[in-house]
Amino acid sequence: MEDNTPRGRESISLTSVAIGLDNRGADLLESLEEGRDPAGNSSPSEVGDSWSKAGPEPFSGWRRRLQPALRVRHFCREHAQLFRWICIGLLCTAYTAFLLAACILNFQRALALFVLTCVVLVFLAHSLLKRLLGPKLLRCVKPLGHPCLKLWFKRGLALAAFLGLVLWLALDTSQRPEQLVSFGGICVFVGFLFAVSKHHRAVSWRAVFWGLGLQFVLGLVVIRTEPGFIAFQWLGDQIQIFLSYTESGSSFVFGEALVKDVFAFQVLPIIVFFSCAMSVLYYVGLMQWVIMKISWLMQITMGTTATETLSVAGNIFVSQTEAPLLIRPYLADMTLSEIHVVMTGGYATIAGSLLGAYISFGVRAEILTTFALCGFANFSSIGIMLGGLTSMAPQRKSDFSQIVLRALCTGACVSLVNACVAGILYMPRGPAVDCVSLLNTTLNSSSFEVYQCCHQAFQSTGPEFSLEALDNCCRFYNHTICAR
Fold it and tell me: Residues 455, 335: one domain?
């Protein structure tokens, strides 16, 4: 029978591909070091017997030539840990020298690297102290784990938070009563969500109040304190600098003309660049570590489950379709309540890549963050959410379709609650506006300062506001509130 296989060509087997390529040199070293036959699988005793029968050792020349390499390899194996620490020490020394040189040459330019280094050192010190003193601290606080003490601690903390909120509203809103409107908005939206809930008795008020409390404290630090505001503004500037690197790459690939004139070549490269940066951070394990720390804080305070907390924490950095990838193995077994939380977190947040695209337009990061409170709670996102989750867990498509509209409504309300919290904490910065000088000029655009000054002018009974100022306010409102 004639063979149709081409001569001189061997058939390809998947066995060698699955096993991998053999390292002939390493195999030879191992066989000579262990006294085995490099060409076979004979034991050292069998090799010795065969060599004794055959006369002089056939591989004695090879052994003499490779003896220095065998000694070096044996030495490296015995002191592998020492070499590892030496390499780490050299890298740390080089990084320290680079950081010192950068800080000496231009400290403002090296400030971001300096801050990141300090943050890493703080967490490394925390991990070292936890490893050394963790068991001792646990033994010290073990008596505080008594149920009665925990109950009284929770009640005392709740009472202190309630009294602090009442005192805050009494003192802070006395100067700006319009902030009470935002506080009323929070109560209305929370009450509405409770009214339309399917299971009123299953509502976890601990998660509700702890979530609002954490958001209030974070907003208080960022908006009301000068260091927090400066840090947030600095962080926005660093993000803008980081995303501006995309312009150089886009100009190199597409040309400066397309980048300047075509909208798609301005925005899409930023999204790709940010996504690639997130992928690299995921690969090295940094993003998982950051998300786990955030989810740990949320879990111990609000008492939520690990899967839903991990997904919500991931929404801070990635989009509504990428965050569920963190909990993909658990989607098939999650309850409807947990899936509802995952969807709501996607609707109520904005992706970091899209925020970076908005920042590239030249608008300040804090203004974009304010408008980003709107989140993704719109009907066009329903298909995105269903498509992403269904591709991960096709067997639960009916469950996803059942709660997607309720999650959309919840995400919209959560975005509005975020805006209400920002409204309570808002305080105008900069010098006070001179309403008399402002209203005596022609009002070409609307702003909150113009609204406040006109409101003050209409309520004023003194002669400080001229007829021209009142007429400007009337024309500003299109004569809708001015009596004629």
Answer: no
As a whole number of angstroms, the distance between CA 389 and CA 184 comes to 35
Count the domains in the chain.
3
Diameter of the chain measured on Cα atoms: 126
Polymer length in residues for the chain:
484
What residues contact 355, with CB distance under 8 A and at least 6 apart? Answer: 368, 369, 372
CA distance 454 to 473: 6
Both 263 and 398 in one domain: the answer is yes
Contact 238, 228 (CB under 8 A): no
Do 122 and 194 lie in one domain? The reply is no
Q: Which domain, by its residues, includes 459?
A: 435-476
Q: With respect to residue 160, please indicate whether it lies within any of the assigned structural domains.
A: no
* Residue 203 and residue 337 share a domain: yes
Residue 170 lies in a domain: no
Instruction: Name the 3-class secondary structure at 216.
Output: helix
> How many Cβ atoms sit within 10 Å of the Cβ of residue 55?
7
Q: How many CB atoms lie within 10 A of CB 277?
A: 17
Q: Mean pLDDT, 10 residues at a time, over the chain (484 residues)?
A: 43 40 54 54 49 50 70 79 88 92 89 89 86 77 71 82 82 78 89 89 87 85 82 79 81 81 76 80 82 81 82 76 78 87 84 64 58 64 85 88 89 85 74 65 64 72 71 65 55
Under 8 Å between Cβ of 389 and 325: no
CB atoms within 10 A of CB 436: 14
CA distance 249 to 146: 60
Which pTM was predicted?
0.64
Q: Is there a single domain that holds both residue 384 and residue 463?
A: no
The Cα 1–Cα 129 span in angstroms is 78
CA distance 18 to 21: 9
